[in-house]
Write a structure and sequence with these properties.
Elements: E1 7-10, E2 12-14, H1 22-27, E3 38-42, E4 44-45, E5 48-49, E6 51-52, H2 58-64, E7 85-92, E8 98-100, H3 104-110, E9 119-126, E10 131-136, H4 142-151, E11 158-162, E12 168-171, E13 177-179, E14 183-190, E15 196-199, H5 215-221, E16 238-240, E17 243-250, E18 255-262, E19 270-272, E20 280-292, E21 297-301, E22 305-308, E23 315-327
Antiparallel strand pairs: 1-6, 1-22, 2-3, 3-7, 4-5, 7-14, 8-15, 9-12, 9-14, 10-11, 10-13, 16-17, 17-18, 18-23, 19-23, 20-21, 20-22, 20-23
Amino acid sequence: MSARNSFLLKPIGKDYLWGGSRLNDDFNLGLDLTPLAEAWVCSTHPDGKTNLISGESLLDVLKRNPDFLGEHATLFSDGDYELPIMIKLIDAKRDLSVQVHPDDSYAKEYEDGSRGKTEMWYVIDAKPDSALIYGFNKNVSATEVRLAVENGSIRKLLNFVSVTKNDVFTINPGTVHAIGEGCLIAEIQENSNVTYRLYDYDRTDKNGCKRKLHLGKALDVLDFSFSDVPRQPMRVLKYKKGFASELLSRCKYFQVERLIINTESLRDTVQYKTASNSFHVLLCIEGCGSICSKSINYNYYKGDCIFAPADCEMMSLHGKSQFLDVCC
């Protein structure tokens, strides 16, 4: 691997009680967990570090080559050049807990210097009746929320939003939320694993224990105001020879585009190169194909995640596929 080549990542799994089997069934990830709730496909977080296919830690590669991050190598202190983002695949066979995330300032003070958590969901697939929770359906108070959690009526205060394949949602810190049963989601987020559970349906884990709630901290960070049901953002496909692209989300932490590659009937390939200011992560959400450059040549498949360093070597993409293209 030369200093500027892209490389495939190997995901790690999480067996949370609400997971299913679709991450293996649909993406052939080969993760030996039942249930399989999440696949962390690109992460340097202490709770789950992604490796390269070769077996080397992505974090070790970035510590040795901080220039791979482009301008973002200067964002971190103490010589720790970890990624500013994390990318996951999520299979919600059952409803996730009702939860909220803190912002950066709260997490830094109360979670040992952690980042907060802004996240974006891209719906890869959903059952016809699938929904998610987003915000409160009226203005509420901390006392009202506390009582509703304690007596199990919290769902009456929440917005339920129907979802379909290809929907996009941005979840800002302070927004009460949950992914509903039947959703298959790609999640792009800040590099944080801080979640405050408000309500978990009184479920028990395999040992018969209820999962811990974090009501005090949740009430500290919640936005108690009424939330409009989120509408899908305006999206415009831009077409070029062999591919199309559209902007899905942009915030101060990351930008996400969808790339649609189709070179099956062409004698040419799609040329892809990152700029010098940011790395890119390509998550294949549909189809398959191949990537080659002067130094590399490999195939990719649905579920594969590719890390492309800042100012990477020009790559040629061929096949019929879709990617989420994430940069900072």
